[in-house]
Design goal:
By secondary structure, the protein is mostly beta strands. The protein has no helices and twelve strands.
């Protein structure tokens, strides 16, 4: 069973930056698209950024221009560089592999907490 381990979260002031990492144990990592999701208290989990196997990226409007997703297939790791953070970015951040019909391909990891203070 593929495991996903997120790290890099923390407490940061508004306007600050964080870089999240997600390490996968899956041997097929390089073949799959990957995404970063977040869930704030009382809200549903949402996809904020995704990167295809070929490297093309997509972003939610709320993070476009501030967040950058990237991947290192040799390390089986996906990253999320978050700049100009806002209090509304506060959430638990998760990674997974988006799937067109089932939603996601993999089980969820423990996530990493991002808290942005105003």
């Amino acid at each position: 069973q593929v495991q996903l381990v997120e790290s890099g979260g923390g407490l940061v002031q508004a306007g600050g930056s964080l870089r999240l990492s997600c390490a996968s144990s899956g041997s097929l990592f390089r073949f799959y698209s990957m995404g970063w999701y977040r869930q704030a208290p009382g809200n549903q989990r949402e996809l904020v950024a995704s990167i295809a196997a070929g490297g093309s990226t997509n972003y939610a409007d709320s993070v476009k221009g501030r967040f950058t997703i990237s991947r290192d297939n040799a390390k089986k790791t996906v990253y999320l560089q978050m700049n100009s953070l806002k209090p509304e970015d506060t959430a638990v951040y998760y990674c997974n592999s988006p799937h067109p019909t089932s939603g996601v391909r993999l089980g969820w990891g423990q996530g990493t907490q991002v808290t942005v203070s105003s």
